[in-house]
Amino acid sequence: MTIPTILNELQAHLEQSLERNKAVGASLAVLFNNKVYTAAAGKININTGVDVTEDAVFQIGSATKVFTATLVMQLAGQGRLTLDDPVKKYLPEFKIADPTASANVTIRHLLSHTSGIDGDFFEEADYGREKLMRFLDKCTLLPQAFPMGKGFSYCNAGWIILGRMVEVITGRTWEENMIENIFNPLGMDHAVVHPGDTLKFRSAIGHIKNPETGKFMPSPHPYLMLSNAPAGATTTMRAKDLITFARMHFDNGKAPGGKQVLQEKSVKEMQTAQVTLPPRASENYSRWGLGWAMIDYEKATVIGHDGTTFGQHAYFRTVPEKKFAVALLTNCDHGGKVYKELFPELFSQLLGVDMNAAAAPNPPAQIDLDRYIGRYETIAAGFDVFAEDGALFGTMTAKTLPEEVSPPETYALAPADKDCFLMTCLADPENKDYISFLGNTEDGHPESLFLGLRMMIRS
């Protein structure tokens, strides 16, 4: 069988994209026709000058959530939990601000980000074996963005709660479960969850922009808060390890040697949509399953999950019916530019899927700017919408992350549809996303906005 040109030239494509986009380093792996193709380029650390190789390991950030979901679904397959049970059945001490939600939020709600919990809660609770238990103790004041089951809002805290539930049911730490129940059966011997274990390998560090020079420098914070591990703080691996994980899900839950790692019915349930997202959501995500995000293109439904830590970014996309997968791991913000170049090309040439296809803007004839002006918030961020010279703008400010890794950004908001705007970063015009305003208050303002997969409430 003739190998497509793009796969024969994968290394050159990655090198050229890194050079064009001034990215630091990246590792790329593609599964096509049951064969894995890899490429690696750039540096794992600009200070040391060490090259990225295909065996270099990167943090995968929130792509970890699909692994944590797999652990939960293993327990469901064993009859040790039921997805529609309240979390409180397994964690009696579970408590958030809303008493009704505390009593009734289910495992399914957490797996599908439909709990309504305002959950971008980045708090270091502990460094030891009790860190998830200690984190749970700190969740008592987490508010609701909406009533449980009545919408979608990405909730990191929910995954730490799920990780703690796995610990209680199994009597083993989340890390031990990851190693014993996923990494070892799949032969993922370069995948780690303990930061110290990265010393065994050629390990990438994230890079952020130096605020004085504008050039990349190693992040002063190598990891997110360790108590956020089940949500994506520590998991580190090669790009081709993500492909190995995808193959298990393609092969009805079986490891390469034939061991049943995850029941076939659990694989299918994870890939079954639980909720539909507002139109034009980030990265074209249209629906969400149990752990997996879904994108509906004309010729394929793509499932996957991205991840971000301090200066590291992971991009993971699969098409189960084609047994096709792509994983890109990068160690600077410009990795997103590499992703936007390479993935559409790979999907187009190998599957005939147009990743750039999108509904044409259909802005209303008139816009009431005053309707949208105001502040919208989560516990982790604020978005201030204001008008200037007859146009709308918005400034995003992080509340909990260090300013050097998450500085304020201002965006121009251009009408795209009714209550929907295309936002373009003024400092980096290639940085674009859509924002949707939802609902109506008594005085005619939106109740909330949907941005970056989060529901932000008007304050």
Percent strand: 15-25%
Radius of gyration: 21 Å
Q: What's the shape? A: globular
Count of alpha and pi helical runs: 12
- What is the CA–CA distance across the termini? 60 Å
Q: What is the average of the pLDDT values?
A: 95
Walk me through what this model shows.
The chain has 459 residues and is α+β, with helices and mostly antiparallel strands. It has twelve helices and 22 strands. The strands form four sheets. Strands 1, 2, 3, 8, 9, 10, 11, 12, 13 and 14 form a ten-stranded antiparallel sheet that branches. Strands 15-16-17-18-19-20-21-22 form an eight-stranded antiparallel barrel. Strands 4-7 form a two-stranded antiparallel ribbon. Helix 2 packs antiparallel against helix 11. The radius of gyration is 21 Å and the shape is globular. The N and C termini lie far apart (60 Å). The mean pLDDT is 95.
Question: Tags for this entry?
Answer:
459 residues; eight-stranded antiparallel beta barrel; ten-stranded antiparallel beta sheet; 12 helices; alpha+beta; globular
Spell out the blueprint of helices and strands:
Layout: H1 5-8, H2 10-21, E1 25-32, E2 35-45, E3 50-51, E4 58-59, H3 64-77, H4 99-104, H5 107-111, H6 131-137, H7 156-170, H8 174-186, E5 207-209, E6 216-218, E7 236-237, H9 239-250, H10 264-270, E8 275-276, E9 287-288, E10 293-296, E11 301-304, E12 307-308, E13 313-319, E14 324-330, H11 335-351, H12 369-372, E15 374-377, E16 381-388, E17 391-398, E18 409-417, E19 420-425, E20 432-438, E21 448-451, E22 454-458
Helix pairs in contact: 2-11, 3-7, 3-8, 3-10, 6-7
